Amino acid sequence: MRDAPSFRASAIFIAAVAVLIRLLTGLHSYSGAGNPPKYGDYEAQRHWMELTINLPVSDWYRNTTDNDLGYWGLDYPPLTAYQSYIHGVFMRKFDEQSVALHSSRGYESLHSKVLMRWTVVLSDLAIFFPAAIAFVAAYYRQRSHEERVWVLALILLQPALILIDHGHFQYNCLSLGLAIGAAAAVISRWEIVACVLFSLSLNHKQMSMYYAPAFFSHLLGISLRKKYPVLNVLKLGAAVLSTFALCWWPFLHSREAVLQVLSRLVPIHRGLFEDYVSNFWCVSNLLIKWKQLLPDRVLVQLAFVATLACILPSMLQQILRPSRRGFLLAMFNCSFAFYFFSYQVHEKSILLPVIPGTLLALDEPLVWRWLIPGALMSMFPLLVRDGLLLPYFALLLLFFLGFVPLRSFNPVAASSLLGGFVLHLAYLLLDPPARYPYLFEAFIATYTFAYFAAIFLYTNYRQWSRSRVLSSTQKRKKKV
């Protein structure tokens, strides 16, 4: 590509700006700051570093005198544990007290907070940034230099992920970065690389399962069109199994060890949902008290059936007519189906649909313009509790000023933004009735659920309508 050097220079500049914004966001509070006895997600991540560098691998997921699973026990797959170990070594080198066994609980020195923030920034630079650049180079290679630079900026400056990873405090950049890398490999037709990268994403956070139906159906659809379909499926399956075996190797010595890890990954005991999340179960619970009507076992089955019913159309379309844009739409639609209907969804899980929605920015502009503000609003109560009000509004303003053109503000968009603005003010300034202490959280969840449901119906239509257009084009070419 002739403009590769200029794109590389633009990518470096955008990455530098993105790092600066992450660092500025990290100057603010985080989940559970100064809030004993369990603090929050910041303490969970720090505690996992403490556990992994001080205990043998066999005790990482097991309840022992040194590992109280009731206090932020590891509940993500092995790759998260290995990441915690690497970061734990880093923290021990520069601030040994921050990861000392037992005595470091609730440790919140300024020095350790700076180091912890840097572990997330470095994780972003190591995985998420290169994956985003690789995806833009692969999927938008026929687009102009300006368009590719713009979409890369949108991916790297997308405010929802910045606020959760660098404000609230998590490492979603790793699992999501691996998933983006896998998507880039799919676009480039490197199917085995895609299987390895997506398997790594699954082994970092089990929520990457939201994308699994899209990867499975697209790669199956591609394999069925090859000369030796069975052989190709076997190769891809071998890549997946080998990657899983490598990640799980320290736990494969016994059935008990495997089951111990698995038991930590499936949060059945937490119930259908916890906080107010903008999905079907939480919003409909205002009228239908699911938890009181049905036992957890039945709710798990109901959630499974509802999720399966909603992902099947996208899967079927990709098996019948696999395409690059159809695959990305399937990633979006399947992840939203999981967000809407699966069991025990957290409000932060909206990041899963946001990623493919952002990757499709140039192809589906209506999606990201509505999705990103809706995603931010759906997490607003969480971010307020974290003390992130200033970076929330700063990043929201940056998003509108930097990416949303004035011509897109039609009466429908203006009225929806006005409604969101009113709900923000009500949450911040008004006291809810004593009888309904979470009234405004319920309003926000219901409002953003309506947003998301409309987007979900639209993108499912787009996936199938796009498929019919491609099919008609192919038929005309054959006739010619």
From TrEMBL:
EC number(s) recorded for this UniProt protein: 2.4.1.-
UniProt enzyme class: transferase
Segments crossing the lipid bilayer: 12-30, 115-137, 149-169, 175-200, 233-251, 298-316, 328-346, 389-406, 412-430, 442-461
Intracellular or extracellular location(s): Endoplasmic reticulum membrane
Assigned GO CC terms: endoplasmic reticulum membrane
Family per record: Belongs to the ALG6/ALG8 glucosyltransferase family.
Name of the protein this chain belongs to: Alpha-1,3-glucosyltransferase
Biological source species: Selaginella moellendorffii (Spikemoss)
Top-level taxonomy: Eukaryota, Viridiplantae, Streptophyta, Embryophyta, Tracheophyta
